[in-house]
Amino acid sequence: MSADIVLHSLAALAYLLLSLSIWRPIVQQKTIKQTGSIRSVCVFSTLVLHGIAVHWAIVHADHIRLNWSQGLSITVWLGMIVFWIESRLNKIDGLLLLLLPIASLICLLAALFPSSANSLVIPSQTHLFKIHLLISLFAYSLIAIAAIQAFLMTALDQYLHKPINFQENPSLTTRVLEAQPPLLQQERILFKLIWIGFGVLSLSIVTGIMVSLNKTGQFLPMDHKTIFTLLSWLVFSILLAGRGLWGWRGRLALRWTLTGFALLMLAYTGTRFIFDVVVNKGI
């Protein structure tokens, strides 16, 4: 068994244990304790383990090797780093109720589906493409975290508009929603993520143009990946313009966020997983 499989399995277990520790009080109808530094250290330690697993799986002596499961793994890892940094500034432990199980599942998939002969291989000398790939994954991670938060905010908004008697008989779903940060705080964090994600996505498009010009002489290849990426960029640019000019917020902003993420998902996945498309297209 290779080192990256073992490390990804350990990371999946660590995320699962952290997930159980935060889900337990919810199931027992207790309030999530803000354990502060203890939980933060545990999450950071798991991120270090996950990062080592990603390095072992992807980085080799003379090339970088990626498949769809490892692409998802590095995306989740980058997204969790963003969450950890944001959690140092705001009390957002409630978001871990979804993020930790997702991270555990992705690490398990990376362990079950390691690199194969069909994986994308990037020679060490193709520095520009590696930079473009890393920037693209970072943009995808930021927007994925924003989309998860938008889903939670949508559910929380619907819950807050329910009749009072519904809230007096809390189900497990209700207790999960009550553990989330206030909507206004989440909205501030959401638009911070979208602004940063939009900036990184713009940089990804610029580096993609440079890669395309260097490889094919084309400004941009008009394939599904390019079209959906540009559509996603357009959606987020309209959303941010609407926020700045007309104060868009609430359900309208959430719908635009989820639409932009859906388009970006189509850009990176299409009918197959992320890097299978990249391999077949040779891009």
Automatic annotation (TrEMBL):
Keywords: Membrane, Transmembrane, Transmembrane helix. It comes from the Bacteria. The chain crosses the membrane at residues 6-26, 38-58, 64-85, 92-113, 133-156, 193-214, 226-246, 253-275. GO terms for molecular function: heme binding. InterPro entries: Cyt_c_assembly, YpjD/HemX. Residues 71-274 form the Cytochrome c assembly protein domain. One of its GO terms (biological process) is cytochrome complex assembly. This is Membrane protein. It comes from Advenella faeciporci.
